[in-house]
Design brief:
Length: 192
């Protein structure tokens, strides 16, 4: 089974994440896409993150009706901050018959050389790259790499930062968030 892994803080999960994950699951050679909820990204400050269990619950609510998508809290049981190579290695050991494929935004390729053991990732894993607004040109060393495939997924410029700002200011997030996620945020008074 070919499993695409879409890592993220999902703070909160929004329609941009869902459209991308669904597109990858249904328009590529992947059998499914798992959303990997990261408790702490090594490149982002953790003080702005909602508790990881709230973020995980919102992802579960968001994908509940989509059999092509799954969610994993695998990084909750790993040292923090989470490094992609460590998660990939752990998943490979836990599911030896699965083929894991990394899904990343084009913007991440510019700093990919800063990732822990990025050479090992390139050597052992296929990477599906989706377009991101305003991304720098793909580094030449990666542009024609045999393990990297550019996927013409829909380009959506929606950010969790913008959504959190709207929520804090009492502005509408209708159509930006799945209804179940919006209801959960309102019920728990999150991001205020």
């Amino acid at each position: 089974m070919r499993v695409g892994l879409l890592f993220g803080s999902f703070n909160p999960i929004h329609v941009g994440h869902l459209i991308l994950a669904n597109y990858m699951a249904t328009n590529t050679t992947l059998d499914t896409v798992w959303l990997v909820v990261s408790p702490q990204n090594p490149f982002k400050p953790s003080n702005s993150l909602l508790h990881e269990f709230d973020r995980l619950h919102m992802v579960r609510l968001a994908i509940a009706d989509n059999a092509d998508l799954g969610v994993t809290d695998i990084e909750f049981r790993m040292p923090k901050p989470s490094y992609t190579i460590d998660t990939l290695t752990y998943l490979k050991e836990k599911y030896p018959t699965y083929q894991f494929v990394l899904i990343m935004g084009e913007d991440n390729l510019a700093t990919f050389h800063k990732w822990k053991n990025y050479e090992q990732i390139l050597e052992e894993y296929e990477i599906l790259v989706y377009p991101r607004p305003g991304s720098a040109a793909i580094p030449l060393a990666l542009k024609d790499h045999p393990k990297i495939t550019l996927v013409p997924a829909p380009l959506l410029d929606i950010s969790a930062t913008f959504i959190r700002k709207c929520l804090k200011e009492g502005k509408s997030t209708r159509y930006l968030l799945p209804e179940a996620v919006q209801d959960y945020i309102q019920a728990k008074k999150l991001y205020l």
